[in-house]
Structure formats: C-alpha cells, structure tokens
Amino acid sequence: MSSYLLGVDVGTQSSKGVLVSLDGQVAAYHAVEHGVSRPFPGWAEHDADAVWWADVTSIVRALLRRTEVDPASVAAVGVSALAPAMVPVDADGRPLRPGILYGIDTRAHAEVERLNRELGWDGSDAPPGRRLQAQSVSPKIVWFRDHEPARWEQTWKVLGATGYLVHRLTGAFVVDPVNAEALAPLYDPANGAWDAAMCDRLQVPLAVLPEIHEPADVVGRVTPEAARQTGLAAGTPVICGTIDGLAEYLSSGVIREGEGCVAFGSTMCMCVLSSVPRRHALLYGGRSLVPGLSRLSGGMATSGALSRWFRDNFAPREVQAELESGVSAYQRLSADAAAVPPGSEGLVALPYFSGERTPVFDHQARGLILGLTTSHTRHHLYRSLLEGVAYGLRHHFDLMAEVGVVPGRLVAVGGGSQDRLWTQIVADVTGQVLECVELPIGPALADAFLAGYGLGLFENFEPLAERWVRIGRVVRPDPGATAVYDRYYAVYRRLYERNVEAMHELAGLSGALPGSL
What we know:
- This protein has 17 helices and 24 strands.
- The protein is of the alpha+beta class and 517 residues long.
- It is globular.
- Helix 13 packs across helix 14 and helix 14 crosses helix 17.
- Strands 18-19-17-16-22-23-24 form a seven-stranded mixed β-sheet. Strands 3-2-1-5-15 form a five-stranded mixed β-sheet.
C-alpha cells in the first residue's frame, strides 16, 4: 500500500518540498533558493522552466534520493506556487515568455486604471474585492495581448504558476477557484465559472482560460516524461493544487472559526477564518481551503524580501561568516538588533520597498525610514525594518476589527517565524500571543495533506491540526514594549498619507515603464 504523500511549493525566492507519511511524520524536507528577474522598473518575472519546473524536479529527486523511498509508495502529489502569476503557453504547453509575477509586478498599472474606469470600479463605492489592482491578472493579460501581439497570437492557454507545474506533471490545463478569483472580471465567483460576456468585453478568448477544479481534485497522473524528469512513478495521482498563500495558512493547522495565521515569507500574509463571509474594501476576502469557512486576509509586498535585501546589500561580514561557520546571517543580524530597544531609538520604517498591496494598493508607494541620526547603526536600521513589517501587520488587524474579525488564536508559519526577535516584535506590536509552528515547512506540508484529502485518505482536516502540525514555542507580548510600540505605531499610520505625493513624484523620477520588449 502507498504510504507517503508529496507536496511541493514554489515561492518568490525559494521552493520547498516535503515527503510525509500518512500520520504526518516528515520523512524528508528539501529547499532551494532562486532569484527574481527584474528586467525593468516595476517588472518581476520567473522563467517557468528554469525556475518553477527546475525547482520541482530537483526537489522531488532530492526527496526520493534522501529517503530511498520507492516512488511507487508515493500515493499522490500536491503542488502550490506563488500567486497570482501568469504564463502564456503554446499548444504544446511551452512558455511563450517569462512568467509575470503577482502584485510586485506593476507593469500593467495603466491597464488597471483603464479597466477600473471602464468597468465603473474606480470609485469609492466599487464592490470590495472586485476593484482591480497590481495583484490582478486580467490587466496583465491585456498588457501582454497589447504589448506582445506576436506571442499573443501563439497563445493556447494562460496558466498560473501552479497550473503550469500541474501541466508539466500531467499534461492537464487547470486552475483552482482561488487562483481564478485573481482573474476578475473574467471569473464570476458567484457561479464559480468563467464569464463569457466579460471575456468578450475584454477581448480575451474564453478558450485560452484553463478548466476550473477544486484544489484537492485529482486532475491527472504523472506522465512518463514527467516521471523521467522527477523520479516519480508514472501514473501517480496529482491534485489541482492552489495558491501558496492559502496553502501556507492551512500549513499552520488553523482550521476553525476565529483562528488566524501570520505567514512570514518573502511577503507578509495574514488571515483570520470566519463562518460568515466578511469584507473590507482595503483587504482581500474569499473562501479558505477549509470547507464552510471564509477568510479575511491581506498581503504585504515585502517582508522576508526586505530582510534579504538588507542582508545582501549591507551585511557582507555576516554572509561571509555564514559560509565559514554555517550560522545564518539572519541569526547574527537579529542577535545584534536585539540589543537595540523597541522603537529602534526613534526610527519608524514604511516597508513599501516594492510598492504595496493591502491595505494601500499603491504600486508607486516607496520605502521610508524616518528619524535617522548619526547615532544610528546598521543594527538600528535592521530592527526598524522588522518593526515596520510588524506595524503593517497591526494595520491589517485593525482594519479586520472594523468589520468584526478579531483573531482568538494566532499561529505563525514561514521561515521568519523561527526568528525569535522578529516574532517577539510582532507579538509586542500587535499585542497578540503568537504560536510558532515547530517545523516551518509551510505550503508544501498543506499540499501533501490536500493530496491525501483529495485521494480520500482523510475524511476532514482534523488530522492536519491534531497530528501533522505541532507548535514549537509560544511568544507572549511584553506589556512594556507594547506600550512603547503604541506610540510608534501612531507615527507609522500617519507616514504614508503625509508622504504619498512625494513617493509618487520619486516613482516618476525613477523612470517610466517600457512599452514593450
């Protein structure tokens, strides 16, 4: 009998995979890093084959080699990936251009503004969750059609990152409803189907859109060619999969109403589950992966990407020390920053280094560190960046509270959840107790569980919460630090509105986006 489940997640700056027994015991875990291509200001791309598929093949082979598990013992495969993203493919499934990433890619800002205006979604009374922004895929499809017409003419399907991986594994062209929601208005969430009238209106043929399936639906089996490249057994079932964010939330074991998750990744994402759908104009809302529960959520454009930026540009000694001793550069940076008091001795950072998604939806937003003096050091700067992300998280929770969504329990996942300083800062800034998972495997763990759920190996999600996910430590807020952060947070909330005009002017001065490749 097959006794393992395999999950792989492809993220913005790294990909991870896990091989898990049916009772939740991790047999092996493997991760690889990759970069983001930024050929022009405002662009963010991945090569679908050299990054997405190459990561999957190397991770799966590493997992099978490390465990010496018989590939025939893998019962099913689940995948997730960064989203929303898009890659056009030809009739043979070959990518026609690099994949265009989510809200950190702002090339289609003109299309966003035009479509919102044409659809009547540019006013303050626009339906929450329907207004197009940098995260939306439809304007990027329109941009691709209008700026790269020769490639558009060859397009057979437009896939997301998850959809592309499932295609490489099985040959199927599919998308789950959560990924499809990012294609509004081409997708009608009320009917769970593509909107033919909107496709005509935007001049996007219905035929280029993939079939819609539930995330845990088995949509195909590993082809002989995919088996050759990955080491999996041909015929292994593969589920439709979903977006990395929702899989990350599920990997926390958060499956009940009132429970929330904070995902420390390249971006900072957060959600709280509710049995009654809640909406806020400045947040994301929609279904969760748990049947019967909705989510209210948000996503910041930079989080771990910000600490990585600091490491790569301002911490050469720590990077060299990591090569020599194996001690993470981030660990050294955090240890030094821990000696700096809360508030970084008068610094407040806006973490909008890649524009911002929720809650400001501004691709021209820019990063800012206010309060600098000659007495500040690198350690002050690093801590202020961690605090800035925490202030952004609190901003989201304050907005959720406006519509009656308050987390009764908060679980932290992702690589950053293992950083003791950062998690303490988040607990202090938000005033929330933070439970940190023992093994921050992330979306890949949920992908593996979903594969088993789709195969009928689990009746519900209780095994995930009770056996698969374990809490490693609990971080409690320090009331004294929280009182200090309350005053700094008040400054943080004023910074964007008081500097937005200058941010936009600087964004313009940095150079216009190119019209085409």
